[in-house]
Amino acid sequence: MAARAAARRIARLLGEEVGGQVGYSVRGDSRVSERTRVEMVTPGVALRRLQRDPELPGVAGLVIDEFHERDLDTDLALAFALDARSALREDLFIALTSATLEASRTVSWLREATGAEPALVDIPGDIFPLELRYAPPPRGVEAVGAIGNERVGVRREYLAHVARTVEDTVAATEGSVLVFLPGVGEIEAVRGALSVPGVEVLTLHGQLSAAEQDRALSPTDQRRVILSTSIAESSLTVPGVSVVVDAGLAREPRFDAGRSLSSLVTVPASLARLEQRAGRAARTGPGIAVRVMDPVDMARRPAQSAPGIATQDLTDARLQVAAWGTPVEDLALLDAPPAGTWQAAGERLSSLGAIDEAGAATALGRTLASLPLDPPLGRALLTASALLGASKAAHFVALLSEDVRAPGADLGGVERRLGRGGDAGVGRAQAARVKETEARLKRLASRLADREL
Fold first, then answer.
1. pLDDT digit string (tens) for 234-245?
2. CATH of 130-303, one of 1.20.1260.10, 3.40.50.150, 3.40.50.300, 3.30.70.3490
């Protein structure tokens, strides 16, 4: 979403359509031409493009936006780009941009990694006044419930307070309101509780279709409330927004190496994320940010979110490193991978036949590294294609890769609901997305059918 939105915005500033001087490439969708000089890509696309040809022919420079977010694919793509620059492309320009960058640490790391003095550039911009307000929940209302030491989700009473805060904010302010919530479930709960007559209520998250996402990002004279996940936190500018309501929560991936399980946990948003969110209100003029928390709570929050390499499953990351060929200890990574998680990733890849005893990528591993799928799903696609054919393999892997869920339904029940084009249990946008993924995976499986592994 961010790549497409950024391409549209820059193209609009140049008075052009997307696909001219400015284009984008994301998974399953690309709009570029021979005229394209600036191409917006996702970290995953950048990573696989580097794997395909480390010299990056035709590319003069690589700009990594919002580097402070420390996405796992972003860290790997930067490490590979620095490696390629050192060995093959000394002329490759690399820039890291961020409004909340840990500048001194990043500059020191780049100096050590490259042996050169990186330039630190401060780019001033229009700074509009931003008023911070706080709307803490009533005494006794906690944001996240817990059983023992395990967090189990956002409490309904807290979401009801968020909804009331949005209603009060709409009544007391002008302009559209952008509301940050940790996930789709919380978005739907707040939308169901909202009563804002005369105001259009939209949602914005990664499970929507491209058309539905574009609707929330299109200019309008209608006042809106946009309920969003962190997807609108930094790279996107939502037109008309002059007020932000921040629930103060974030949903982040965690990996338990001991149990080999990944999960999404709800945590207090870091100070850097709170700052980014508040700034959305003052992008084009004076703004107001309402934080659903007590001001004293700020002192207990981390300055930055943990980098993905420190908290996520590293199975795909280890495969990408193996396919790249440079030992992980020789790559310029700002943070090293945890030893236990890295070892668990190696064991999983070995069981898939993706790496050999020395940790080098096998022929199968190199194929899996080129696929826009997690390695186990990539292996499932290849194996099922050989046994069942490309169509059936693509169908079931699409269900798994899109993480389709429905209350009380098994895989067969989910299939039936998807076959009807979605219903109350499986959203229509999700059904359409599964269908698009299935078509893309079928084409991919057909191309791979004759490859020897």
1. 777 788 999 999
2. 3.40.50.300
